[in-house]
Amino acid sequence: MAEDKELKRKRKRKEKQAQRRAAKDRAVKVYRTEELSSLFTQYLNAGQFDAAWLVAQKLRKSSPTAPLVYEMLYLCGVYSGNRERLYEALRFGFEHGHIKAKSSLVHLLALADYYNNVHLMEQVLETLETKKSSFVGKLEKKEREKLAEVKQRLSARQAHREKQAGQPPPPSPPVATKEAEAPHMAETQDVGAEEGNGREPASRKPEDSLKVSVHAEIDPHPLLDVLQAGMAAPKERLDVALEALQVSFQSTYDELLCLSTLTDVDSYWYQQETARKVMKHFRGRAILADEVGLGKTIEACLVLKEYMVRGLVKKALILVPSALVNQWQAELRDKFGLHFVSTNDDLFKQDPAGFWKQPLVVASLQTARTARHFDAVTSRFDDLVIVDEAHHLKNHTTANWKLVNNLHKTFLLLLTATPVQNNLEELYNLVTLLKPGHLQTRKAFKEQFVARGNPFDPINRDKLRALLQEVMVRNTRSVAQVQLPPRFATTVQVEPSSAEKAFDEAVHAFVRHEAAQSASGLLKQQLRKVLEAAGSSPYAAAGLLENLARHGNGLGRQAASLAKEARSLHEMAKARRVVELVRAIAEPVILFVNYRATLEALRQMFAKRGVDHVVFTGGMTNEQKKEAVETFRKGRRVFLSTGTGGEGHNLQFCHTLINYDLPWNPMEIEQRIGRLHRIGQRHPVQVYNFCAAGSIEERILDVLDRKINMFELVVGEIDMILGRLQGEKEFAEMVFDLWVTHGDEASREKAFEALATRLKKARTAYEKTKALDEKLFQDDFGT
Amino acid sequence: MDSQERVLRFAQRFVECFGGVTEREGQALKVLLPSQLAQSLELPEETAFGEGQMPLPLGSPVLDRMIHAATASPPVVFGQISTEYLKKAGFAQILLRDFSFPNSRVSLGQTADTRTTYLLLYAHYTALSDERKEGQVQVAVQEKTGAVVEGFEDNWIWFPCTFFDPDNVPAHFPKDISSAVQAGLIRAKALALQDLADFIESMHRRLRRDVRHTREYYQALEKEMTAGLNHPTLGEAQKAERLTKIRALPDEAARKIEDLQRKYEIRLTVRPSGAIRLLVGVVQAMVTVQHRQWQRMVSLFWNPVTRAFDPLVCESCGASMHTVYCRAEDGRIALCCRDCG
Question: Is the pTM of this model over 0.90?
């Protein structure tokens, strides 16, 4: 009995203690609530919204369901004009049933729409429809319109999703089965709650439980070092440091941070907007399909640089046609301050495995796709991959497409002025590289968008355009308001001296003979270079012949003899003609030469004849190059430059160009012209192409100029046309093969005529493609 | 305040803090820099920024150099908080309010006024996924125990505070507070993750959506290709080739999904950007903890800024705690958190 009493007493004591504790907790809570409330009001009145928000969050922790918390959060959001906070406040209010006004619900709906929270939108709509009478106030006209707009968008989205999943579209909005409880926000809906609503229950998929991995690391060392050193600072120093960090916060893409780090880049408004759109809306995966000449390269490099400045890209791979590797490398270095290794560097030849491990690589697509390099390239993990001239990826059965498809990448940019060349399936192949499944399967795509018998013209055009607008930007000249002046070309045919002619014939016979004897691709390439050099000058050919002479065999002996003959020649008929032309033209002239030996010979001639000139070569330092351009700008007559001349430098103040020798690759001719004929050029550009009568260069000019009017095309279009030629041989290789294969004049004439016809057909096809692209994309894909 | 104005104000403060002289003229800022600063900023000693002068846009090299100079080394400031009055009584109730000792008994012993030091740590976090988010958080830590003191970082500003001249810092501050710094950064990481909750959730959503689309695409593709195997005109060699392609589809899908996981994964870095070390007058209370047959004296510190006892620190994992579990270890009591106790 005594024990019972004792136990009862103990129990009572414990209960009392618990009650006292609970009362104290309540008192503390009330005290704390009042204290925080008072602090909140102080902060709010002082305009310190961040501090006020923190106080509200504190109270939320201790009293998560209190209406006061909702009011505080809501006021913070409204007063600070901070959308995220307002969203959080309204969500909180909705979750805990604190929202009383209809307009607040509509506001929450609009914010849920902005943040793409479909589930919340559905719940809010359901609440608005089923519990309208529980909320006060009338909706204004704007709010009613917003409500209707969101409803419509939501049901369109649902219908699209259901259709994709093969289910019938949902019936009119379902009636909630439970009315008493406040709506509960959940990631996935309960199966039970949806029964009786006429909808199939959402089945859980494995990806529903997927979470991104979060790798967090802390770095105490900067502070520990300071503490160990015993360093103290004044308060102002700390304030400045904290403010510096605030200034440096780079969260939004509204301002491009990289612009002030660029050198000699006049980026246009549409290029900057494109870069923003790609990062903000397309999240770094897009097709850049601007019309030729509008600067897709600049746009892609802006995205690259911006991502690098923000720390989002550390490894990048750029895949381009072989002819553009050097140009890309130079532009990245000179304009964007980025040092990329390339497949033209010694490192690639010496240590390919080490090369592919470099973080920043520009590679020839043709090289990267080969069996030798495929595995090394596809085992990289690149943050950003850029593919220039991405129409080379139009066919999913090619090695090009397979390479890009197998690359590991976070961001991907595909650059092409003609995403559709022959049929819509090419577009499908490009988009599938970016986002597999965006245009569904190939079969479904064809069924939905390709008309039988007309692979060019899409059916359901509007739907296709809507899908493409999610992955593609295409600026047109009319939208960008960019117009380039015309360009004109004149061929200057020069009759070589008899000695020069004899030398040329000897070289040609030698090359033809050796090319026929040998199957070695490397030797053929060397022989082709000899022919090209001979087209420039005997001095240029001499150097290459001396290289061949090292072979030591019959080939070597003959090459040595020809080299000796070349060095003994002193006449240059073309050079004399150039001097005459330069004297006849009143304006500054850029004179391009492919070979240093030829340049040196011209330089000597200019010096002898008193022609005012400045020299520019690839071997000069950056400072020397800048000085040379500046000297020319200030009034020198001739800018005597090797083929790389002016890459990355603004030469648009000049509009007359002389091609002393002609590269066999039209893209290189294009690049030379492109130094002058580009955005910023105000005058028509005049191009003088020098060639010896009867030479290969004359043939090339005949094909390119007379047959397809290459020099009147917009910059970049020649590549569009060349890309359409059958087979994957470079144009220069085709020309060489024709020249060595056909020994006599008549068959050579016929062969070149056939090449010209193919080019003409390619041009016609290109024009057709251009028309199709204009029809399909119009002006709606720009920024 | 527009961003340009903000940048100019920062530039003005920066130059003045680093020993330069400034003069504001409307939207322009004239500055006279000490020679060392001019050298590090790669500017002439006399220069001007703003409208009609050298522009200072976000991302510009000059602004980047200023930011780098300001943040290269986290500044540590020393100060003292003065309180007019320190609580004298009522600690027993506060002890009951602030702490819970589920498996032991406590009794309050003597109290005494003393001083201790707190580290107010400012930490900068950067989260990189397929976009970048950054922010700043503050954490207060008691330097002696390494306990994270919530509320201190918000309330200390309401108390009079004197900052010591860097050359005249009193000796009260402990030399080695690496565990306090560590505890502070761990808490800062948790706060950063809280701040980033919406961002992380949006990445989860994007990942799930993209993975779902990818899986659906490859499943549909596999279905179509498998159905196509029955085509009457398909030869054996073509069938074999197609089967090889079908078998390769799961690997291809897995690679794409791996790429998506890498794309959306979040790399969070938390670094200290500065600190204030504060000397504060507190009340030390000696508390006897009784667990089974063992007893132990524990010091608690009543903090006038938070008006509460500072938490204790788990002797196993170092986490701050208000619910204290006692564990017998080698004949003595170890104080642990719930997970360790």
Answer: no
